[in-house]
Amino acid sequence: MTSIFRKSAWLVCIALSLGTATAHAQTAAAEQFSFDEFDRITRAYVNERGLVNYAGLKQELQALRVFVDRLAAYGPDNKPDWFPTAESRKRYFLMAYNANVLYIAASAYPDKHSLWSWIGLFKSHEIVLGGRRLSLNVLEHEILRKEFRDPRIHFYINCAARSCPALARGAIPPGETDAALERAVRRFLNDPGHVRVDEASRTLYLSAIFKWFREDFLRYLKEERGLAQPGLAEYAALYLDPDARAALARVPAGQLHIKFLDYDKSLNEQ
Questions:
Q1: DSSP 3-state assignment of 35?
Q2: Whole-prediction pTM value?
Q3: Where do the domains of the chain lie?
Q4: Three-state DSSP class for 263?
Q5: Which of 37, 36, 54 is CA-nearest to residue 45?
Q6: What pLDDT, in 10s, does the model give residues 108-156?
């Protein structure tokens, strides 16, 4: 009996050691690509509302360029050992998106209209990640949406417009991508400028993001929440603060109206 206990204890120790070693390996891999400069820049030039001091950032554009060049040189495609997990890949691509948009907007500043020109920033502008040339459109739709299938990304990535989700201050720490996405989605859905419930008129006002990416939200509710016939209101209810969620629940489902808010494409400057 004693030998069995000793063997069991030994196996537990081995399992714990392997788990600790794996965690250390993942942390070490993440640290090979440093987001420290992006962390510093966003903390210096992005305020608590997620608005950017472009005039100030313009004076330090070269520092942001150095970070963007590092994204261009290294990424999950050419350094897979640096990004060994789905979480580390998602973390990289989320911040790569925001860093490139920030750099493009700051480079164009004080021109405030080129981002949303008729050509379209997201279709036409080429970026480089880990040696791979692609557009922001491909990064969003073919990588972030298709690979990770997480609708919360829509509330983290920032398109430099006022109606976009707030640009996050600071880099996502290693292993904390899920927590960062949770904070982002709750912040967005509880901002009346993006989502609000009018119980008197039985209306749920939603950002146009919900119209553009409806399929992502409904697919999540079906696949991850097991809802047979989900609606956008069910997704919103997952993250609304208690008072707003209660107000929404008091409106009979068959009587709820959904209206999409106008999207302000003006630059997200302070």
A1: coil
A2: 0.88
A3: 24-260
A4: coil
A5: 54
A6: 999 877 666 644 666 678 999 999 999 999 999 999 999 999 999 999 9
